[in-house]
Amino acid sequence: QVQLVESGGGLVQAGDSLRLSCAASGRTFSNYAMGWFRQAPEKEREFVAFINWSGGSTNYADSVKARFTISRDNTKNTVYLQMTSLKPEDTAVYYCAASASRVRFGIDRLRSYEYWGQGTQVTVSS
To answer: Per-residue pLDDT for the chain (126 aa), expressed as one digit of tens each?
Structure first.
């Protein structure tokens, strides 16, 4: 089992940048593929980004491609989401998630991830 704690959220203006962190504890961090998801008010949780166990493979939702970058540091048991050129529509609670099952249902599916953090709020004002 792994515990996940997100941090780095906040209130920013459109066009600003923000970096989210997700610290993991428990089992060996490098055993897990990691994902970032977000949930806006009255909307379903949606996929944002994925990174495999080594960091050698990443994938992004079309809405954030070229603006967001996911990375991980297995020596620090942490995954990051660097967000640039933020837009008001990026406003949401952001969650990190860990998959021990090789994301067998797909990298963008919630059910592929067994462990979730509590989320961190990102608010982008126009």
So the answer is: 899 999 999 999 999 999 999 999 987 899 999 999 999 999 999 999 999 999 999 999 999 999 999 999 999 999 999 999 999 999 999 999 999 888 888 999 999 999 999 999 999 999
Sign (positive/negative) of CA torsion 110, 62, 16, 74? positive
Structure tokens at 54: 């080594």
Q: What is the 3-state secondary structure (H, E, C) of the chain?
A: CEEEEEECCEEEECCCCEEEEEEEEECCHHHCEEEEEEECCCCCCEEEEEECCCCCCEEECCCCCCCEEEEEECCCCEEEEEECCCCHHHCEEEEEEEECCCCCCCCCCHHHCCEECCCEEEEEEC
Two structure tokens written together for 51: 């990174």
